[in-house]
Amino acid sequence: MKANVDTKPGFIQHMLGKIARKELDKRGQRVILAFSVLFSLNIAIGNVSLRFVSVNFNQVMRSLVPAITIVMGYMVGKKTSTKRQISVIPVVIGVAMACFGDMSYTPLGFIYTVCCILLASLKVVASGEMLTGSMKLHPVDLLGHMAPLALFQCFFLSLVTGEVSDIIRRWDTEFNPMVHSTPVMVVLASGISSFAFNISSLMANKLTSPLTLCISANVKQVIMIGLSTVLFHTQISPLNGAGIVVVLLGSARYSYVSVIEKMMSAKNDEPPPETRNGEPPGQAGASMVVEDHLENGTANNQHNHPHDVR
Questions:
Q1: Longest dimension (CA), the chain
Q2: pLDDT given for residue 236 in this prediction
Q3: Please, what sign has the CA dihedral across residues 68, 73, 76, 80?
Q4: What is the pTM of this model?
Q5: Contact, 171 vs 184, CB < 8 A?
Q6: Which residues of 147-156 are buried (b: 16+ CB within 10 A; e: fewer)?
Q7: What b/e sequence results for 70-95 when a residue is b if at least 16 CB atoms lie within 10 Å of its CB, and e otherwise?
Q8: 299 pLDDT band (50/70/90 cuts)?
Q9: Rounded CA gap, 241 and 121, in Å?
Q10: If you compute the radius of gyration of the chain from its CA atoms, what whole number of angstroms results?
Q11: Which of 95, 117, 199, 239 has the fewest Cβ atoms nearer than 10 Å?
């Protein structure tokens, strides 16, 4: 039984593929360190920005991430076709419509939010390069190298921002699991969900593209609005409802364009027809015609002059 189990790949391996720890050189270690800082700042600034801006303003600004990702992709040599760029426009507009509401913000909150969307775009592009570029890391391996560094960095940022001291102050009355188990369960559930989210997003980034991942994130936002409307009877305006429809139609258009481009790319990458004796198809065909003509000529000569054949 043990041998049978050992020879069959598990469910996780079926889902994620072969996971192998890759040793990094000095350059690779520096890249991972820089990415971990980017990852930590993206979390910290994203959380801090919500103190100074409304959720609606934050979501509307985040709808610009696909457009910024296209620009950053050009900067690293990843060009996006014109059809895909046009398909992104209704998605961005639709998300802005769906999330439009309380648009309150402070000047400091605006700066934080701009930094947040820039970091989000940069994180997606950078992770795509590490997954499909020269390093070619597996998503799980990338998290294994990066997560310990990001853990210490996030802890340091929580110390600087005062979150740790606030938790200590409220520990005995609110956060102690012996008093209330809910906060601990929420933190554990959040950690598991975040791990699953990071794995799935990195896998999607590796198999598709950073832009496709950003489009999926925008679609996720409007789906959450729709689910909250159905489950919690949240009131939405006609503008918000129209935005949800625009995003869904725009994402469907983007998916259609992506599939068509992949099919055309696969068709162009097909190998040419098999050649004869290493010759190109046209030359091989000509050689066959010449050889058949010579064979027929030889046969006729033998028939007309049988005595000349020795």
A1: 118
A2: 77
A3: negative
A4: 0.72
A5: no
A6: eebbeebbee
A7: bebbeeeebebeeebeebbebbbebb
A8: very low
A9: 27
A10: 29
A11: 239
